[in-house]
Amino acid sequence: MRSESKSPATDSAESGPGPADRAARRAVTVFPLLVLAAGVAGLSTPGTFTGWAPQVPYLLGVIMFCMGLTMTPQDFTGVLKRPWAVALGLVAHYVIMPGLGWLIAQGLGLSPQLAAGVILVGCAPSGTASNVVTYLARGDVALSVSVATVSTVLAPLITPPLTLLLAGEFLPVDAQSMVTDILKTVLLPVVGGLVVRLLAGRYIGRVLGVLPWLSAVTIGFIVAVVVAGSADAIRSAAALVLVAVVLHNGLGLALGYAAGKVARLGAPASRAMAFEVGMQNSGLAASLATAHFSPLAALPAAVFSVWHNVSGSVVAAWMARRGRRSEAE
């Protein structure tokens, strides 16, 4: 659910938000409702969706391909311009969220399947809507895009060993197989989308406004499939999972913002850090949990898909209001 990779911040600085940015903002606003409806559908009529479970990795590939289509070389040159800030965001993301996942799993006494699922969410790369939410918060979108891009590209090298380290005490983790799955479902589609954008950018620009909606609908369908696969367990575990997800996301947002403040990156960059740390690629986590653990282990990722977009939108509105007040003073 990225917006055009020239970035909303750049566009707004030059000529105001473009059509792709407005579409992305509408999509990220409607997205929680869409995903919630998908979850209700999966819970109400599980038989409609359970047969789609083997297709989840391919659906995730569609989302990642759309993400690649929104990328340009500027996303990577931005890393070279601000290596310290991007490195800090990357370290904060892959230290804070995995660590919080493990602590929450231990503190709440989660079952092995749910514990592994929460930890896997924490070990995933940045969420695909993080740069749009950063834009809504009047944050540093260029930094957000750079951190999200690098965390996604490095996910095959970081997510599997982190999951093995932290979730291995709960369930067996085949890290090598997980690397292969992330390469196939994340990195290759992203690179493919980037190549298509470079070769046919003139034509891709015409459909950029549609991509956030395509991603939103696809993630919603993944959530319906995941919820359908564990419909029976949800009735007894939903409240506990919701508590775990709210804690995970809320603490991630707060600690991400604090990391930016401690590093004296400034208010806009600290807002970006909050969302790059607290928002996860829950679609990837759900896909990996379904493939390597069980549908129940994918439940935290499904709940996270809804909650982090709701909380992200609310926190972004609050940050934007505070930012406007500070500028007025």
From TrEMBL:
Residues 1-21 are annotated as: Disordered. Keywords: Membrane, Transmembrane, Transmembrane helix. Pfam families: SBF. The keyword Protein biosynthesis does not apply. It is found in: Membrane. Residues 1-13 have a biased composition (Polar residues). One of its GO terms (cellular component) is membrane. Its main location: membrane. InterPro entries: BilAc:Na_symport/Acr3, Bilac:Na_transpt, Na+/solute_symporter_sf. The chain crosses the membrane at residues 30-49, 55-72, 84-104, 110-129, 141-162, 182-200, 207-231, 237-260. It is a multi-pass membrane protein. This is Bile acid:sodium symporter family protein. The lineage of its organism: Bacteria, Bacillati, Actinomycetota, Actinomycetes, Kitasatosporales.
